Amino acid sequence: MEPVITNGTTGAKHVSSSPLTLQITQQEASDLLMSDIDSRLVKVRPMATPVDQISRQGGARQCKSMEVDYYSVDSLPRETVITADKAASENETGVVSVENGKIFAPSDTLMALITDASGSPVTDCAAPVFYVDDVSADRLTLRVVNPVPDENDNIFPLLAKGTKLIR
Predict the structure, then answer these.
(1) Most buried residue among 22, 90, 95, 104 by CB atoms closer than 10 A?
(2) Model's pTM, two decimal places?
């Protein structure tokens, strides 16, 4: 299975669709595994957390530079926009064209932010929630979680171009 590499909100890289291996980590983030931290993590005793162990071993050290490297935490962007209208249908599933489908993974749940003509969120009905069945770069296969059939017995709701899908 080929890994899918996606940029996060702060530029870090996320790996999905395959296990995270040492080889992929070294290829995509070669400076992530720093030898000093790695050597300390090896010495972690049972029942102690890595952060606790490192902080106890750290102590005070003289430093002539104020430049310091830290690990950072990143997350994938949380929303995308539908790029083409998706008509309502009687099916539970539908394929939707989106700007960036790679930020989602199968088994994610999404909410469609339905707005009126002025762009204000519609609050008189429950927002449609979807389960992601399949992902490609610009398409999502979605399954309706909270179907509310309309007057034509359509289960999958109309999703207009420009509608936001939020994780």
Answers:
(1) 104
(2) 0.58
